Amino acid sequence: MVGRLRWSVLGPLVVAVLAVLLGRVRHGLVIRLPWSLSERGGSRLERSAFADTPDWSDDFSDSHQYGRGERRFSGTRPMVYESPITDAARIESLSYPVADSGRSIALRAELRILVQDAASAAREAQRIAGAIGGYTVQAQVAQHGQSVTAQVVLAVPSTKFQQVLEELRKLPGLSAIEHESVSGQDMTTEVIDLEARVRAARATEERLLALLQRAEKVKDVLQVEEELQRLRYQLERLEAQQRSLQERIRYALVSLTLRQTGATLVRRTLEALRGGWREEIEALADAARVIGHLAARVAVFAPLTVTLAWVGRWLVRRLSSSVLDSTEWHRQDMSVWRDASRSNGH
Asked: Which keywords are on file for this protein (predicted)?
């Protein structure tokens, strides 16, 4: 009785352990994540990195920590990667969602990267986008105290989406990737709906034009023209929405945040100090050159200056003595004149 009781308790546990071990031996260290592509129970996409990978659904997201950063991927394709042995191996094995044939996918990526020079890395990112037919939606570089950050939003062709991400992960001066997320939104339903509405509006326009040709009364003509004008306004709005949606599908958005590392700030501060010291030395050298030029001119014109000064002093003294002599003679004349006047008075 006791033996049966022990077997009834331990038996299921042993079977469960064996099942887990057999499952790991069968599948190795490979993780398969099944998702389905259709939002509303539509068709399923039969693509996989392995032949036996099941269908997958519309939205998926997965995040994995490595070091101090995080990578998050979501979209419309399965993500199959090996168990995390090393960071480098894990990063290389990640696959990105792309626009599969027959589906209209709007792709978007966000990256936060540590770089040595934020402004230079931002320019390089814009060059990468322009080289493959993309363009810059927004770009700005801001400095707050000792922190320098560049924000860049790029629009790149969806067919070159993965290539752009690979090149951005190799930016010059890259120190670390803090965060990377890739997402894909299935816009197939919206595209089909807009196409159907545009076709219906154009068909209605043709019918209204036919009615306008057959209308005989002025009242009927005015009513048809009013309805035709309203319909054409709606058709223009639908076509504008269609162009905007096609643009979202044709071009993927890549939002890039580049943060400058502190080591670069220290280096730039030292370079600024060295530059300031160099400028001070150059200013002193300029002052010394000015003093040297003045000394040379003084040495050349010193004899003439001394001679002119001596002559001028002699002339001043001579004129001063002449004035004093004439004043003294005038005094003596006045004294003699006063004495003579007194004698005549007596």
From this structure: Coiled coil
Q: What is the pLDDT of residues 295-346, one digit of tens each?
A: 777 676 667 677 777 777 777 777 776 666 566 666 666 666 666 666 665 5
What are the residue ranges of helices labelled H in 169-217?
A: 188-214
Please give the C-alpha separations between residue 155 and each of 141, 150, 219, 247, 254, in angstroms, as whole numbers: 18, 17, 51, 10, 6
Do 276 and 171 share a structural domain? no
173 in Cβ contact with 214 (< 8 Å): no
End-of-domain residue from the set 232, 260, 288 = 260
pLDDT tens-place string over residues 33-46: 333 333 333 333 33
Same domain, 193 and 274: no
- As given in the structure block, the two tokens for residue 133 are 């037919």
The Cα 30–Cα 56 span in angstroms is: 17
In a domain, 55, yes or no: no
- Alpha-carbon span 110 to 345, nearest angstrom: 126
Residue with the bigger pLDDT between 201 and 17: it is 201
pTM, rounded to two decimals: 0.46
Same domain, 167 and 215: yes
CA distances from residue 202 to 188, 199, 226, 244, 281 in whole angstroms, order as listed: 21, 5, 16, 19, 78
- Number of domains into which the chain is organized: 2
Rounded distance, CA 57 to CA 41, Å? 9
Domain assignment present for 13: no
